[in-house]
Amino acid sequence: MIVRILKVLPVNLVLLSAISGCTISPTSNISDDTYVVDEFKLVQKNKYNQTKLSIKSPLATYDSNDNQVEIGNSTIDIFSNGQVSAIVNSDITILDRYHNKLSSRGNLIVKFMNKSSPIILTADSLRWDLSDSIIYIDGNVILLNKQVKIHSSNALYNINKNIIKFETLRKYQYLNNEQENKYIIDVEADTAIVNTIDSSVIFKSNSRQVVSEINFNPALKSN
User: pLDDT digit string (tens) for 169-222?
Assistant: First the structure.
């Protein structure tokens, strides 16, 4: 992992990370244990020396006591097979450098790169063990693209497989926007699996059949 800081103080102020190959250069210190980092940028690579993630922020605070970095207004690029597969924006990201974990919250927006158009997901928070390829997304999860809306309590994003699994599905809607033949399809199921590359969706139900309802008057039912 490499952290690059645009504003750097003398070398004796550089803090060595518990994560191999990672350094943080503070621009000023609030106390003996807390440092402020301007123009924070972090890049982590996998064992094949490919970029796994990058984090950018105008301001971050490093606490050497608990070995955590609090990153404000962060942008996280998540990579899969050498390409950016998702971009995460949030008010606060906490990087736990000791346990190699990351969490984000506050105005959380995840944009998944897609062949046709990006898929947008909003939620309360996310959690990611950086040694794993699964990201846990929690609280009021809503996924939107041009024709699909999914509402769920939580979801899992598998980076390697490029899929999002909604485990507690509340609602799925498909909106056909063709001018002469508009309609909405509502689906009742327990689980939905979305492929972020081609936007295909698979539904599963644990104890009942998957139920679909077609509404040919979307003006009467748009939520």
Answer: 777 777 766 655 555 777 777 888 888 988 888 888 776 665 554 444 444 444
Q: CB-based contacts of 25: which residues, under 8 Å, 6+ apart?
A: 3, 5, 8, 9, 13, 14, 15, 37
pTM given for the model: 0.79
- C-alpha pair distances (Å), 48 with each of 52, 88, 133, 188: 10, 23, 15, 42
**Annotated domain spans of the chain:** 2-167
- Domain 2-167 of CATH type 2.40.50.180: no
Residue 69, strand partner residues: 62, 95
All residues at 6 or more sequence positions from 60 whose CB lies less than 8 Å from its CB, including other chains: 36, 37, 40, 69, 70, 71, 72
**Rounded Cα distance, 164 and 196, in Å:** 7
Q: Which residue type does 23 have?
A: T
Distance CA 119, CA 199 (A): 8
